[in-house]
Amino acid sequence: MTALAPLNQLINRFQEQTPIRASSLIITLYGDAIEPHGGTVWLGSLINLLEPFGINERLIRTSIFRLTKEDWLTAEKVGRRSYYSLTGTGRRRFEKAFKRVYSSSLPAWDGSWTLVMLSQIAADKRKQVREELEWQGFGAISPTVMACPRADRSDVMATLQDLDVADDCIVFETRAQDVLASRAMRMQVRESWKIDELGEHYSEFIQLFRPLWQALREQDQLRPEDCFLARTLLIHEYRRLLLRDPQLPDELLPGDWEGRAARQLCRNIYRLIHAKAEDWLNRNLETADGPLPDVGESFYKRFGGLN
């Protein structure tokens, strides 16, 4: 237990999940904290680090085994100790997901759209293709047409190739429009991307973490362990939100979009506590060579720059 009541509430909330999402939290920890320090740590130190979240050793070992089977992690034995790091595949997955978490801003939108027609794909395969495109920010504007206002064509084509449907899809790219977001366009976006539901999730995030922000600011001296726990849960919850968020251009979002306030809150908390959290990581995680390597320069570019 910590002295910060809002942090205790967040830890209790995590522990009350059924089932407890240990594997997901471990991925958050690797992406946010371990990868910037070289990416490899001793399993024993990882177990000790995660204990305050209420995850016992058996569950951690089971989760690590599962992540290894799923090609997220790979193990190296040095004597009787096991050291785990992200696989090449796991690192690529991490980079795609976490790049969105820490980016300072999105590129400006020129009003163009990418459309993918799925009408020539067998019905039993179409659901899988839709789900994969949704991960890339696409929404369904009809049962067989997916649309995205800011898509990377090479990523889209690579996804269709991986799913073996590139020859069965029709991909269009529209030109920029004079009116980027008409009333009809905003209504379509609201419906196709379930904007209201996503906004409610962002509101819940703000309600969960605003008390923590206030409590942290009132502390004369922040405890490194509290900062580590808070930072991990902050990024864990924010990362899960961004997995649902297509990150549409501002022109297509409501004027009172809660995603903006949630991002500002996440950035403010992270900037306040990241240094103390680093102190705790350096004290508690071990590599085969001893202490953690220093973080690289890219770490300090998170959220537009860390002091």
From TrEMBL:
It comes from the Bacteria. Transmembrane segments: none annotated. Residues 21-89 form the Transcriptional repressor PaaX-like N-terminal domain. It holds the Pfam family PaaX_C. Gene3D superfamilies: 1.20.58.1460, 3.30.70.2650, Winged helix-like DNA-binding domain superfamily/Winged helix DNA-binding domain. Residues 108-180 form the Transcriptional repressor PaaX-like central Cas2-like domain. Residues 193-282 form the Transcriptional repressor PaaX-like C-terminal domain. GO terms for biological process: DNA-templated transcription. This is Phenylacetic acid degradation operon negative regulatory protein PaaX. It comes from Pseudomonas nicosulfuronedens.
